[in-house]
Every structure is written in C-alpha cells, then in structure tokens.
Amino acid sequence: ESTRRVACARGRRRGRGFVKPRARTMPTPSVVLATAGYDHTVRFWEATRGVCYRTLQYGDSQVNKLEITPDKQYLAAAGNPHVRLFEVNTSNPQPVSSYDGHTGNVTAVGFEQHGRWMYTGSEDGTVKIWDLRAGGCQREYESRGAVTSVVLHPNGSELMSADQNGNIRVWDLTANACSCELVPEVGTAVQSLTVASDGSLVVAGNSKGTCYVWKLQPGSKTTAHFEPLHKLQAHDGYVLKCLLSPDCRLLATTSSDKTIKLWNLDEFKLERVLEGHQRWVWDCVFSVDAAYLVTASSDTTARLWDCSTGEAIRVYSGHHKAAVCCALNDSAVESAVDDVKADQDE
Fold first, then answer.
1. Residue 42 and residue 55 in contact, taking contact as beta carbons nearer than 8 Å
2. pTM of the predicted model, to two decimals?
3. How many other β-carbons are positioned within 10 Å of the β-carbon of residue 237?
4. Burial group, residue 33, by CB count within 10 angstroms (0-12, 13-18, 19+)
5. Of the candidates 138, 212, 87, which has an alpha carbon nearest to the alpha carbon of residue 129?
6. Coil, strand or helix: which one is 344?
7. What's the whole-number average pLDDT of the chain?
8. Percent of the chain whose pLDDT exceeds 90
9. Most C-beta atoms within 10 A of its C-beta, which of 29, 55, 194, 279?
10. Exposed (0-12), middle (13-18) or buried (19+): which is 338, by Cβ within 10 Å?
11. Are 142 and 125 in contact (CB under 8 A)?
12. How confident is the model over 271-297, as pLDDT tens digits?
C-alpha cells in the first residue's frame, strides 16, 4: 500500500484567518442542524420548529457531505472537487476558507475532536488531512479505489477508509502508513463505515444491503486486529449509511429501499423501521443522547425521528432537489426536545 506525505494545494483563506471582520455575528444556537444536496444550497434549520432560517448558495457543484466543527463555529461542505468552510453564527454568505486539492467528488469530511485538523476522502482515490490552523493539506494517503467513507477512530491517531472496490483500510497517523487492510466481500462496494465512540466496534455497510460488524480492543492506541462479530442482512437494497449511536446501543442503517432501520447492538435485533421517506435515504445523524435521528433523502426532505417510537416529529421541507446529507451538533438537546413536545401539545 503506497502512502506519502505531500504538500498539497493549500487551503485558501478569505478575510482575516477564519473570521470575516464585517460579518454580523448572531447568537450561537443551542442546536445546529444543516442539510444540503443537489440544489446547490446548504440550509440551516430551527430543529424544533422545522423552519429554515438561513440558506447558503454552493454554486460550484452539488454538496455531498456536511460536518459541523466541535465548537459549532464552522460548517464544512464537501462538493466536487472542493471543500468549503462556512461560518455558522454570522450572516456571511461566503465561505471563509476553501480546500482545493482533490480531483473528484469529495465523499467524506470530518474533524478531530478539538477542531485542529480536518480529514476528507474522495472518488479520486485519496484520503487527505488538512491543517485548519496553518492551512493546507498536510498528508495524503492513496487508496486503490474511489473512497466512499472515512471515519476517525476515537483514539485520535487512526483513520479508517472504505472504497468502491470493497476495501477497508486503517491509516496509522503516527506511523504515517496503512497499518491494516481487509475486504469483507470481494468486489462489493463498501458504502459506509462507522466506529463506536468507545472504540469497541466497527461496522461497514455495503451495496448488497449487508452490514459487517467487527469487535476491536477498546482503549487500544492502534487497531491491530478486526475480530468478526456479526453479519447483518440489513436491507434488500443498498446500505447507504450506517451509524453507531453515541451511547453504543443502536445501529442505524439507511437504504435505497426508502427506509431507516434501528438495530439493538446487544443481539443485533431489529428494533424499529422508520418509514416515511419516498425515495432513497442517503444520510443520518443521531442526537447526542441517541434519542433522536435526523435523516436526508432524495425526496428533497430531511426528517427528525423519535428513536423510541419510530415517529417522524418534524419534516424539513425546502430543498428543490435531492437532500443527500445532514449535520447536527446539539449540545443542548434536552431543551430542544422539550420545545418539540411543547409544540406538539399546542
């Protein structure tokens, strides 16, 4: 496996650092919820009332993925082939930074826990690490296929990537090399990867509707061994996203069959089927307490689901084409839930 450290095209900064001096600063919302897709817009929503309060234009391309920084100050929007960084709490409609270096669709984006660096994956076959303080691409890892998913291990020192050829690789950031490689099903694209917040499990969902589950050594500084734990036939169609809940009790899977399924991790039994979307469901994200799930679909809507009842509490309507990604940062989720309940009682 070839890896190399390169000085990629540097991220361009606009304004002074990451702050636009003339932008009007708004109060930091307790819940930041954003969606995007094929209508070239990013929309911010009042999560409890379902109202869009801000729309950003993303003129270059569709938006494939969204991620909010841990401090809720910035939103990364990944398109083709750029990543743009927008301010969350100002009226500035322009990106404050652009990350240019990929040559294909950017299919994955995320941040390390302190927001010091960002990682991306692309159909150009590379995984890149970007320094958000100094700017620019610091590292590039080459895969042998179009990258579909990248996740950061909770140990903070390993990235895991998946590709359309069915490969899963672990990139050791300390050794700056690929430390582990496995192929759960030869020739079957892995669409999504997720790793448990305690580092105990990794799940991969593929284009045949199957989820593979491996057990890892919790607390380990390196991932030396994937112990096969379970094989789950989750959907008849593609698994488009799989996501372990923050409390490590549930696995959510979204699919081309228009449904979302919630699985209990104790015995991998189906707990809930969330039905309501009319087309493919591309993305999902849990609330911090794992009580709620937001999903994005080709039917142009996003939805907020109660995981305990399977009920869709809110429908976010406003996109004119497929909504394929969503991002949520909800440090004050309890108060938001109370607001939803109060609205329902009215």
1. yes
2. 0.88
3. 15
4. buried
5. 138
6. helix
7. 89
8. 82
9. 194
10. exposed
11. yes
12. 999 999 999 999 999 999 999 999 999
Amino acid at 22: R
Residue with tokens 């996003």: 302
Closest CA to 337 of 45, 69, 47: 47
Short-list 67, 163, 152, CA closest to 124? 163
Beta strand ranges found along 10-104 (DSSP E): 12-13, 32-37, 41-46, 51-57, 65-68, 74-78, 83-87, 97-99
What are residue 332's phi and psi, to 5 degrees?
Answer: -115, 45
Query: How far is the first Cα of the chain from the last one, in angstroms, to the nearest whole number?
Result: 59
217 — pLDDT class (breaks 50, 70, 90): confident
Q: Do 64 and 122 form a contact (C-beta atoms < 8 A)?
A: no
CA-based R_g, the chain, Å: 19
User: Cα(193)–Cα(216) distance, rounded to whole angstroms?
Assistant: 14
Residue 42 · residue 95 · CB < 8 Å:
no
At 4, list the tokens: 């190399």
| Amino acid found at 282 | W
- 340: DSSP letter: H
**pLDDT digits over 295-331, tens only?**
999 999 999 999 999 999 999 999 999 999 999 999 6
Mean pLDDT of 80-97: 96
Beta sheet of 158-163, edge-to-edge order: 147-152, 158-163, 168-172, 177-182
Torsion of CA 174, 176, 181, 187, to 10 degrees: 140
The DSSP string of 45-68 is EETTTTEEEEEEE-TTS---EEEE
Q: Are strands 32-37 and 158-163 parallel, antiparallel or unpaired?
A: unpaired
Which pLDDT belongs to residue 333? Answer: 34
Task: Please check whether residue 11 is in contact with residue 130, taking contact to mean a CB–CB distance below 8 angstroms.
Answer: yes
Residue with tokens 């799940």: 203
Helix (H, G, I), strand (E, B) or coil at 206: strand
211-217 average pLDDT score = 94
